[in-house]
Amino acid sequence: MLKRFRYSLSVLLSLGLVQGYAADAGLTKDPAGYYAMQQEVTGKVSSSEGPLASVTVSVKENPSVATSTDANGNFTIAATSGQTLIFSAIGFESREVKVSGTTVNVQLTSTDELIDEIVVTGYSSQKKGEISASIATVSQKQLQDQKSPNISNLLQGKVAGVDVGNGSGRPGAPANIKIRGRNSISSGTAPLWVVDGVVAHGTPVVNPNDIETISILKDAAATTQYGSRGTNGVVIVTTKSAANAGDGIFTVNLSSGVSNFNMGNVKMMNSQQMWDLYQSFNNQDKIPANVTQDVLKTDYDWLKNGTQTAWLQDFSVGYRGGNEKTSVYGSLNYYDDEGTVKGYDYNRMTARLNVDHKLTDKITFKPKLNASYVSTDSRQHSLYDMMLNMPWDSPYKEDGSLKNPTLEGTSSLYNWYGRDARNYLYDLQYNYSEQRTFDISANLDFSYRISDRFTFESTNNLQYYNGTSMAYVDPLSNGGRSDKGSINNFSAKRITRFFNQMLKYNETFDKHKVSAFAGYEFQDYVYQDLGLTGKGIAPGTVIVGNAAAVLNKQGTKNDYSLQSGIVQANYSYDERYNAQASFRLDGSSRFGTEKQYGTFWSVSGAWNVHNEEFFQVPAINLLRLRASYGTVGNLPTSLYASFSTYGLNAQYNGDPAAILNQYQNSMVSWESSKDANLGVELGMFNRLNLSVDLYNKNTDGLLYYITFPSTAGWSGYWLNTGAIRNRGIEVALSGDIIRKEDFSWNVGVNFAHNQNRILELKDGADIPRGDLRRLSEGRDIDSWYMRKWAGVNPENGAPQWEIVDPETGEITKTSNYNAASLQFVGTGTPKFTGGVSTSVTYKGFNLSASGSFLTGAHTFNAARQYFDADGAYPSYNQIALQDGWSRWTPENTNATHPVAMYNNNSSSNKISSRYMEDASFFRLRNVTLGYNFGKTVTDKLKMKGLGLFLSADNLWTATKFTGFDPESAIVGNDDSPSKTESDATSQYPAPKRFIFGLNVTF
Predict the structure, then answer these.
(1) Most buried by CB count within 10 Å: which residue of 1, 53, 354, 625?
(2) Burial of 746 (0-12, 13-18, 19+ CB in 10 A)
(3) What is the 8-class DSSP label of residue 867?
(4) pTM value?
């Protein structure tokens, strides 16, 4: 009967008899084509945290019918039974619900929750339960605990097996990252960085507020897809995406604070302590006559003068919004940091625009633009000079002007007791430098949905870098006097192009899920610089063209290219069994035609045991087993490793001349690493999570530059020789100790152990690395090699070193430095690295803390050669004796320090294990206390969110290391394969910071 009525009414309407009144009567066509009576549909929209306001609710069949939820998540909309309601809100996954009554209640899932389920694994994304490789993720929330303009610093202590070392505390300086140890003897340790699918040149300049997630690819199953560039691991950065359809969200993040210089365990002598040291010299007749008790009238603190409490400011604004076709994310950021060493100012501005536009149902354009402008102005004080200068010397005259002891030191006005009669502040008042860099990255990406199974994705990127610098040396300065002043102008530009064209396939049928992609990738790089130094300038000019003559000129150009083919396939069955296979072919311009292409592959599998029917353990909600094996490669640092090269920067009799440089080796090829990984993931009680990974990585065909004797003409050539093994274990444990509606407490800890061994070297022979290290088969890559300290001779206070009999191994002692045996005395590789974190939330309050630790690494504290030198450098200030240290005297024969002498020539301060120190530390990285105001307050202020926070960085460091900062002193933490020793004479320690911030959402 009802069907007949509906049919009759439909016929009448189609005849136009009542069609004009249909809308007024609340009638719409239903899916079957009949007119149906609209009804009021009410409901409530919420999330896991409560009701959601401002959620857009629309009718799919008639998008013009739409409304939004109120402050309590309630809505009312006119809809017909059988129609579909679309619920969308920024920061939440959209949902579609079919109307079957008058009430519809919906819960939306936040994108933060989705991030925990979907992981960016490189060129694609996978659910966590389907991943068979070793991949760790860091969410945007985890990156907010520290303040740094460089994203590499934000990873410290976050991921097991990822050793993030603070190479320098200077503003803008990147951290140095080692993923699963050092895998090469000639290449650096830096991982490959990929931002939104584009391979970056070095560490990318990205505003940390723009980051959605970071994925760290660790084993070959994860990194093979990046082939020759994945051997040190890969860091995938995904920036925030544009918003779903709905109201836009505007965010403002303001923070400001102060940084203090971190003295560590360094304490230089004051005037009295320096006088007491002089009085302890056992050759008093050698002390100059001008050193009298009058020196005690001056007690100048050079370190205090050169360091400061510095201001830091970080301001960001962002917008996310869109409609059914176009969605946008945009941001602006300004960061300013003065630095804790005086005279350096770092400014950075960044801008980002990510757009998604659906041109048709099949084609989506995804343009992206990221730009940064960095400026630095430097009159930075010298840490080395701050330590070197004597407390007996004041840099200022009585009238407040700066002394110039280089010219005036011998005058009757004053004496200068420090070495070289140099007051570094005198030149610093005149001389300075500045640097400006502009970096822009533009993507014109698009995707084409060929069918439900196939999608074509195109990534097309152009990166342009332009850097300029100027260094000014005034004619009135000591450094500019000989040339009558000088000015240096330098400019550099870099253009990198990246193209990736990829066909993707996805299919789900029954319990099977298959996905795959095949792609072609091309990248090239061109770099060019030009520098000119002019001499003879008018004071104040900064234009090199105003110089009277050319002092120096320079110019460089280099390039490279890489093309690749990539194939990867994934298979999942019934959410229980997962498998993945990858293959990549790389071709590089760095090699000759003989070895230009390299192949890399991997296979992996995972078993979700907890999804098996036979596994019925209520306490265990997750049990996954993973295994992988594969190969990755490595490129030489030289861009022309296979070729003979000549230097054309010479002249003969006024004509240009070529000089022999590198010798050709057409057979030089890729380093090859074979990587195996076993992993287990365990979840218990839905609140405790444990992951353990074991790995073994063998790298052979090591790229090494063989140096020729100076008489050969050629400097040397590249050769594949030697092998290294890295193996280790990584453990990560986290859990919700308390998880209630108003109160929660989470704790996490991770640690890793890595051991590397050199398995093979050319002809089995050791290879020296400077004066301090040595490569040797069976030993760690970063092995220290020097004379071994044997303490102080209690009879006469003389220094002692060990002599090892090469035949018997018998150990004796000697005070003759040259007679002592060179031997291995430790390694710079830590035994364990890791981090801890905890967070507590109570209603609107949140408290978090994080720390990192490192144990077992030893470093050579080179500063002590000069500033703990037993009188060898009497015109340098010295480090005050620390707890446990004592100086030999006839009354104190059981001492750590030899007898002190003026101009000591006993060699006690020469290179030996005396200055080898344990660089183990635990550092409290950050403590943050925040408060988020409730809806009652935000509604009154017409805001969507309001939060305040107080943060402190690097509050406390526990270490026995006697320098400023153990991190910056650890060898290898500068990612320089050629660096052979730690530089403890110019460490810039990580500062202590206190920051107040405000986060507002409109």
Answers:
(1) 354
(2) middle
(3) H
(4) 0.83
Q: 660-700: per-residue pLDDT in tens?
A: 899 999 899 988 899 999 999 999 988 899 999 999 999 99
Sign of the CA dihedral running 32, 33, 36, 38: positive
DSSP 580-610: EEEEEEEEETTS-GGG-EEEEEEEEEEEEGG
The DSSP output letter for 138 is E
User: In DSSP terms, which residues pair with 461 in a beta bridge?
Assistant: 443, 498
Q: Which helix (H) or strand (E) holds 472?
A: strand 454-473
**Contact indicator for 72, 44 with CB cutoff of 8 Å:** yes
Unique residue bearing structure tokens 């895998």: 183
Q: For the segment 211-261, what is each residue's pLDDT rounded down to a tens digit?
A: 888 999 998 888 999 888 888 889 999 988 866 555 678 899 999 999 999
How many other β-carbons are positioned within 10 Å of the β-carbon of residue 88?
Answer: 23
Of 311, 347, 354, which Cα lies nearest the Cα of 437?
347
- Residue 9 sits at φ, ψ, to 5 deg, of -60, -40
Report the alpha-carbon distance of residue 956 to residue 921 in Å, rounded.
Answer: 10
Amino acid at 710: S
Q: Which residues contact 581 (CB under 8 A, 6 or more apart)?
A: 568, 569, 601, 602, 603, 604
Q: Write the single-letter amino acid at 861.
A: N
Question: Are 271 and 391 within 8 A, CB to CB?
Answer: yes
pLDDT per residue as tens digits for the range 966-989: 888 885 544 443 344 444 456 789
DSSP, collapsed to helix, strand or coil, labels residue 701 as coil
Q: What is the Cα–Cα distance from 825 to 822, expressed in whole angstroms? A: 9
CB 286 within 8 A of CB 127: no
Q: State the Cα–Cα distance between residues 422 and 761, nearest whole angstrom.
A: 47
d(C-alpha 665, C-alpha 590), whole Å: 12
In our burial notation (b when 16+ CB lie closer than 10 A, e otherwise), range 563-584 reads bbbbebebbbeeebbbbbbbbb
d(CA 894, CA 887): 9
Helix (H, G, I), strand (E, B) or coil at 153: helix
Identity (one letter) of the amino acid at 769? Answer: R
Picking from 475, 510, 469, the residue whose alpha carbon sits closest to that of residue 493 is 469
Q: Annotate 274-290 with b (16+ C-beta within 10 A) or e (fewer).
A: bbebbebbeeeeebeee
Q: If we measure between CA atoms, which residue out of 196, 206, 198 comes closest to residue 242?
A: 196
Three-class HEC string of 490-552:
EEEEEEEEEEEEEEEEEEEECCEEEEEEEEEEEEEEEEEEEEEEEECCCCCCCCHHHCCEEEE
Count of all residues that appear for the chain in the document = 1002
- SS3 category, 14: helix
What is the maximum span of the chain, computed from C-alpha positions, in angstroms? 125
162 Cβ neighbours under 8 A, 6+ residues apart: 136, 155, 177, 178, 179, 216, 218, 233, 752
Cα 437 to Cα 492: distance, rounded to the nearest angstrom: 9
Residues paired with residue 599 on neighbouring β-strands, in sequence order: 585
d(CA 531, CA 533): 7
Amino acid at 25: A
pLDDT in tens, 426-477: 999 999 999 999 999 999 999 999 998 999 999 999 999 999 999 999 999 9
